[in-house]
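Why do we care about 3D structure at all? Because function follows from shape, and shape follows, mostly, from sequence. That is the central idea of this module. The next example makes it concrete: a single protein chain, its amino acid sequence, and then its structure expressed as tokens.
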Amino acid sequence: MELFNGNVVRILSDDLEGDRHQRFILELPEGRTVLVVHNIDVAQRVPDLYEGAPIAIFGEYEWNELGGLVHWTHKDPNNDHPSGWIEFKAERYQ
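And the structure:
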């Protein structure tokens, strides 16, 4: 689990196959981008996201050829995995 701070640079459509995920691209301070996939079957959707929004995310990073993705941004309903979260506008979503 890692902490990521950055700005939303693109909002994508939700992934509706299997568990539903809110998806967006986060640009990190060094310019690298990562895909964020936030499980909205387990956690509350982050409302009112917009391009340019500053956001903090605590989640699990997985590398891929496109820059990687961050997931596990929520509590684990089975308590088998460390909990993650997203902070936006002084609210925590997990």
